[in-house]
Design goal:
The structure holds 2 protein chains of 2 kinds. Chain A is mainly alpha-helical. Chain A folds into 2 domains: 170 residues; 255 residues, Orthogonal Bundle (MetI-like fold). Chain A is built from 18 helices and 6 strands. Chain B has one domain: P-loop containing nucleotide triphosphate hydrolases (Rossmann fold, 3-Layer(aba) Sandwich). Helix content of chain B is 31%, strand content 25%. Chain B contains 11 helices and 12 strands. The chains are: A mainly alpha, B alpha/beta.
Chain lengths: 517, 303
Amino acid sequence: MSGEYASTLVTDETTLGERVASTVIGIGLLVFMLSVLAVARVVTEEASVLGVGLYDFLAGGLLAMGLGVFVVGVGSALGAFDTTPDETPGTVTAGAFGIIAAAAVWLATLQLGVLGPLGGFPVGLLAGAVTFVGLGLLSEDIGSTLPAVVVAVAVSGTVLTNLLTPAWLWDPEWLSAAFSGSMTIPTLTAAAALLTAWAGAKSYGGYGSEGRQAGAYLLVALNALGMLAVLLAVILFIVTKGIGPAFEGFSLYPFDWPFVLNGYSFRPDVVNGVFPAIVGTLYLVVGATVTGVPVAVAAAVFLTEYAEQGPFVGAVEIATNGLWSTPSVVYGLFGYAFLVPRLGGTTSLLSGILVLGFMLMPLCLITSREAIKSVPDEYRDASAALGVSQWETIKSVVVPAAMPGIVTGVILGVGRIAGETAPILLVMSGGLRDDAPNVLGSFEFTSAPPFVANDALLQSAPALPYQLYATITSGVSAENAVEYGWGTAFVLLVVVLSFYAVGIATRMYFRRRLNHE
Amino acid sequence: MSNTTLNETERPDDPDERTTTVGESEETIQPSWRQYHFDGDSKISVSGLDVHYGDDHALKDIGMEIPEESVTALIGPSGCGKSTFLRCLNRMNDRIRAAEIDGEVSYDGENIYGDGVNLVELRKRVGMVFQAPNPFPKSIRENVSYGPRKHGDIRTGFFDRLTGRDDREQRDRIVEESLRKAALWDEVKDRLDENALSLSGGQQQRLCIARCLAVDPDVILMDEPASALDPIATAKIEDLIEQLAEEYTVVVVTHNMQQAARISDQTAVFLTGGELVEYGDTDQIFENPNSDRVEDYITGKFG
């Protein structure tokens, strides 16, 4: 009974098949990345890689991949490699290749100009169905590699034989869009490279469940890398564009950083800066946090610890979820129509703080409730058994244990409101100015109720996101407005990221207090 | 919870002459089996205690006298109501909204289910240790001093120090005393400021006992205090329970009959359906029980 397994338990060397497959994956990742860069126009068609034109290089790489996958696939079917393929490639694989075949045949009929725009459609469907059924009859090693080989060879062949050149243009009459060769080629090579690399990964795992695992691993890992790449692209783009204007006239000794420390003076001989907007954003975010978070946390404590699950709690839950999904411009309109007339009649910093505080509340309430719910009941029991009142328990056990979760909510909420433009546009809308709002220095006592007045709070103040919007789009007639805008964007990014940093440090502090002390 | 065999409509008028069917044996619970005669005073006396969870009749007409400064074990199969009974003794069942409690439980002669009972004072006198160790995610020192601090017996806050009241010495004395009584002092005396969650399971459970002792109770209720622990930690807890009985009244729920036989002075056997079947000297219960069902349960034929 034992000793009858198809594959060996321990293989201490990499086999030839594995080496070919991993080469295919490596080339695939290179071709895919270059293709994506070409689609994004970061690399242009004039570029040459290793002395070869970009598109020829992509097509050549694809051809090599196709050959490699062909070798491992057919080798496995002939028994040259130690693999464990299933009997069929599986419904999903066959279906995916069927769809590809249908699309390819339909597009080919369109290109050849036969059968008309819709006449090729049933032919494509037929080709897809035939592919689907045909692949189902093949074993897994052939069935999941051969179609990928066909796709790779077909794509690279059309490019290498100059059927498809960068100058190629397809402008169908029945569609308003046109497809140019310089976009189509890298799109096709990217898709084909991904498909062939997946087939290579499946071969690397030796097909079967191991192979599917390897193929899926490649795809999900690429998704994670893609996320990272998008983030890096955004940050790099902002930084490269904005770092120049932001550091104009910067000197370390004597320390001067005009873009950050100056206001906007409308004078050509000094560097115009964003200091008032930075201060305005700080007041906004800190003010909104101070107004919104305590209300949200207290409400969360009440709903979770005191209120019984019933119609009231249900209504509050629906209300918070609704408020959370309300578009920010609606909050802004509410502030404009309700708060502004009641708070001095002009757009003001105070209205901005209150509107952003209202926006912060629902998210903080939801996350705080989840955090408080996840505090184990054992703590509450232990405290109650010692005769400690419920409020004391909440204060000294439940809320400290929930603190990291509460802070996470505040971090997310602050991230949302710090860059809000729409409500600011309606309720605050401060223009470019030379001096920062002086909120702390403007408090004064008055003889009439409410006995405290603060002019700075009731005036409009500049904020980074709104200022960015105003400078770039609505043509504020400032000199070199575009550079100024990029610099502002860079500073806004840094300000928001430092809010994150403060939040994450706070959360780490509370976690450490809970776990190590 | 299976009390399908006993429907409430079939319930006889005299609760002491009730008939219960379990499996094939049928037996009438004699009132005399539940009478425990002992010298000295009873700390807690329970009479006519009924507990309902919604439609579920969890405890039926329990009457019991618990002598002071001794260990009373509550044994029985899962779902027999022994934990529910224990949680009635310090009114922890009040925290379960569906629970409905009728009857009388007296602590030193005062009915704790009567009017005007101060729950804080009751729970200070009747402490509780739970099945799974549940120290707070705070330092060892803060865990032990938690009760006295929250009751205002120890004041070490900023303003207290400002107004000249600094109880830190007293706090440290209480912490040391409680940890010594819980046989944990020697193991943790050098790391009182470390997080309690860094202790092992057995140490955590002894810390919970110390935390309970710090509020200076009379009675300690323990709900299967060793069931989540390994044999060595269990042995330490058992030794500790026997020591504590010299000064405190200990009521301990356990699944483990050997444990009950080793540590307890008297044993109460609850069987399925939420009934107290027999209560008496531990030796008598384990060697010569009156009830056949109790004998079956103890010898492992049932339960």
